[in-house]
């Protein structure tokens, strides 16, 4: 299988999306006949070339972090470029198209709305929709010790291995990665405990202090004058 | 009411949306509203890079030195932000999206629970209401409009406000104006 992967994170090679894709690719490569090409959509000037590669692949995956409840602008830019290259339903041999969406929020609900768009996009382009993998709670994985990420990385590797054989996202792994759409009552209770103990915002507080900005954390630079 | 219109039409060739907004602005002004229109394609608006400078190095201030600070000031002083866009490939224009995701310095990184979900807390105590005006493309259908509306309704929740309007330019200018005036 010839797979093209698009990393839609503005952070590019140092992104959390890159880490998840790296583990996906490790699994995908387990089938020796598979080949892939990974492109970074933050290289906006290369979008025309990237769109050409889309037309010549057997499968394509666009992976991105959730930005403002949808895709980052660089991904929308690329979709608009694809739109100028592809005559919907008439361009032959388009690759099947899947998506991976990751976010910092723990619940999958945040990504469910753009998931609908992703499905419609495949239809609009006139190609087969593979599905969308959703994973929350990803911000911060780069500072977590490896043992806390181990299950996540194994899941992405297994997802890639299965995809490399079937050109499908494994439904059980996909469901487990997404987790709950909304917090349970216990989850909401735990949130309040985390807030009261300061643990919910620990990542942000740590970085505010690290950058000497903690005392200015509540600044309101654009507060209108009375 | 103070209204800021962010015109996300990237095209200088097809100005149908621009003409609609010009008519709407005249109607709104005649109804006593204060209107400020920002034509985003004429502005220097850089991509959000997800660097978090606005959250943990210079709280509330983006790392980019471009035209967004004036837009932030206008938004925060307004009662209603109208996001206007042609529908391209079933979604808002990349141009509007680029400005839109640069709203992030207006929020605070700390978490809060709203509607039973994790969101970020507000940096400010008051935010303007949101509205969206969409100009359909040749391939736009009702499902596209519903998808965009749902996503912007969620984005309004993120910004501790609500999406008060979601119209297409199929609606007559006068009716759009009346709906805004009725808010």
Question: What features would you describe in this structure?
Answer:
The complex is a heterodimer of chains A (226) and B (183). Chain A is of the alpha/beta class and 226 residues long. Chain A has helices at 16-28, 47-55, 73-85, 109-125, 146-166, 171-178, 185-197, 202-210, and strands at 2-7, 35-40, 59-65, 96-102, 129-135. Chain A has 2 domains: 2-178, Rossmann fold (3-Layer(aba) Sandwich); 185-216, no CATH class. Chain A is built from 8 helices and 5 strands. In chain A, helix 1 links the parallel strand 1 (2-7) and strand 2. Chain A is globular, with a radius of gyration of 19 Å. Chain A starts with a strand and ends in a 16-residue tail after the last helix. The model of chain A has no long low-confidence stretch (mean pLDDT 94). Chain B has 183 residues and is α/β, with parallel strands linked by helices. Chain B has a 5-stranded parallel sheet with strand order 2-1-3-6-7, with helices on both faces. In chain B, strands 4-5 form a two-stranded antiparallel ribbon. The longest helix of chain B is centred in the C-terminal third of the chain and has 17 residues, at 142-158. Chain B is globular and about 45 Å long. The model of chain B has no long low-confidence stretch (mean pLDDT 97). The chains are: A alpha/beta (226), B alpha/beta (183). At the A-B interface, helix 3, helix 4, helix 7 and helix 8 of A face helix 3, helix 4, strand 4, strand 5 and helix 5 of B.
